[in-house]
Amino acid sequence: MTIKRLVLIVSTLIAIGLATLSLVSSWQKPQFQSRLELYQTNIALQAQAWQPEGADNLGGIRKAILEDQPLQSATKQYQEAKESVQTNLDKVQNQLTQLRSQSKIVPPPKPLPQDSLDTGTSPELKLQQLRQSLYQQQKLLAELDLNLGILQAQQGQPDAALKTWSEVQNLVETDNPPISTEFLETAAALSGIWSNPPRILPDAQQLIQRNLDGWFRYTALIQLYQLQQRQEPLLAVKAEQQEAATQAVLRLTLIGTIPFLAALIGTFLLIFLFIQLLLKGKESLIAQNGDLVWSTPWDAETIIQVFVVGFFFMGQVFVPLLLSVLPIPRPITDVRLQAVSVLISYFLVAAGALSVLYLSIKKYFPLPRLWFKFQLRDYWFLWGLGGYCAALPIVVVVSLINQKLWQGQGGSNPLLQLALESQDFVALGIFFSTAAIAAPLFEEMLFRGFLLPSLTRYLPVWGSILASSLLFAIAHLSLSEVLPLTALGIVLGVVYTRSRNLLAPMLLHSLWNSGTLLSLFLLGNGN
CA–CA separation, 399 vs 256, rounded Å? Predict the structure, then answer.
């Protein structure tokens, strides 16, 4: 055995171990999907206040866009979110208890700004990270209770609302480190204006405006102004609510209509392809090139070398280590700097991985036919667009099953959260460059351009599609994303093997990421 092969074996084992630890660690983190659903719920609540001029003529449109029972649906959503956060909170508290029982470390008085649980850190740092995670989970739970109480009050359940708001007080009293007492004060203000008889605190208006958003703020302010019999601010806030409701309806229309139409087209397309496959067999569109393998001049050692050294170590070790030694203030709080940091990190990882790929296969140049094929004069555009439409219903169904499986756990891509909460157009433009341009170019070159064809040396084409799709999903290091990304990877693989043109999966990948970012921007802006 050569030294190179020995080093590669050891590196592969290390990479597998680190990837496994990252996946296990992601299991303890909440899914991004849970926060996304709350954002959409908030916009739906805001939209239900929409009362357009000529409402009789627009009644059909309003009914098509808005739910029949938005308050009940939102209450259910918030209760499920609360249960999920409480589960995460209990886990963090148990971990804190275990860590404190194993150590005599004195906990620091304030939480750290980061929220990442690194299994390789010292007990002191891990304790700080757990305390920060505890702080964030308790803060989120308090916010959920404030909003949930308003939903209950608006449905004629004042006793349930008062009980929900009282839980904020219990949370503040037991919290260590303490979250802002403004949550307690806001809960007291809400309890007062929905009590019988009502009790209006002197600073109720300021607390509501600072600590509530969207429909919840408008609803609480309207209740307050009605009790105070202040007609001028009441009319003003109702007019503001109507304007926000109109914008919310527009956002819901954009978020729902385009993906729905694409998914509908995709469903009919899948049915057509399935029927054509049954009738025409290997002459059908979906079967063309289905059994055509690539002529692969390199062996498994080269494949492993590219992915272990070029992709994993470059992304998880070399680039993070390089960035850690740069004189950059941390944590990065400015959203534009965060966006630039993500773009630079991604560019460095892509440049390093593609360099390893080039050096690994350089000796086999010129490559056999079909390798890394880019052909503008082709049907790649139709393959990419059709693949995007077909992927939507498939990934949606898989995602619904996946949510039931993980119950709000499993972590998510941190870029999604940044894009959701960022309303800076420059930052969003940079995020778009990363997700909709850089990611499709790099990931399709690596996973569909290199890995999938290379695997056809050892597996049939369908097996290579499955294997490359699974590795594509695992590479994102989030358990909750493995099934949906595997489904997306399969569609990408089918599109590539049938079109034999890398531009097709790149277009599909870009459309997918672009649609996701657009939805995130609309949801975040509406909240």
Answer: 17
Longest dimension (CA), the chain: 87
pLDDT at 102: 66
In angstroms, rounded to a whole number, what is the distance separating the alpha carbons of residues 301 and 323? Answer: 29
For residues 469 and 492, the answer to whether their CB atoms sit within 8 Å is yes
Nearest residue to 497 (alpha-carbon basis) of 457, 454, 465: 465
β-bridge mates for residue 409, sequence order: 30
Which of 488-491's residues contact partners 24+ apart within 8 Å by CB, and which partners?
488/391, 488/395, 488/512, 489/447, 489/465, 490/465, 490/466, 491/387, 491/390, 491/391, 491/394, 491/395
Residue 30, strand partner residues? 409
Q: How far is CA 272 from the centre of its chain?
A: 32
Tell me the C-alpha distance between 4 and 11, whole Å. 10
Residue 308 tokens, joined? 């272990």
The reported pLDDT for the residue numbered 122 is 56
Q: Which two tokens stand for residue 217?
A: 């703020």
Closest CA to 116 of 130, 106, 103: 130
Q: How far, in Å, CA of 470 to CA of 492, rounded?
A: 12
Closest CA to 470 of 452, 482, 478: 482
Residue listed under structure tokens 């019988």: 196
Side-chain half-sphere exposure of 507, counting CA atoms within 13 A: 21
Q: Specify the pTM.
A: 0.79
Place of tokens 């505890």: 134
> What is the predicted pLDDT for the residue at 163?
92
Residue 409 gets which letter from DSSP? B
Query: Backbone phi, then psi, for 131, in 5-degree steps?
Result: -65, -40
pLDDT value of residue 118 = 41
Q: If you write DSSP's letter for every residue of 371-393 in order, what string do you get?
A: TT---SSSSHHHHHHHHHHHHHH
Between the CA of residue 408 and those of 29, 114, 415, what are the distances in Å?
9, 21, 18
Assign 373 to helix, strand or coil: coil
Residue numbers of the chain with a pLDDT score lower than 50? 57-58, 105-121, 173, 175-177
The SS3 of residue 478 is coil
* CB 407 within 8 Å of CB 489: no
Spatial CB neighbours of 19, under 8 Å, sequence gap ≥ 6: 312, 316, 474, 477
- How far CA 37 is from CA of 32, 77, 111, 524, in Å, comes to 9, 8, 28, 11
**Phi, psi for residue 372 in degrees, rounded to 5:** 45, 55
- Picking from 316, 319, 304, the residue whose alpha carbon sits closest to that of residue 352 is 319
Q: Rounded to an integer, what distance in angstroms lies between the CA atom of residue 404 and that of residue 402?
A: 5
pLDDT of residue 83: 83
Decide: 394 and 410 in contact? Cβ < 8 Å.
no
The pLDDT value recorded for residue 216 is 92
Task: Return phi, psi of residue 25, to 5°.
Answer: -65, -40
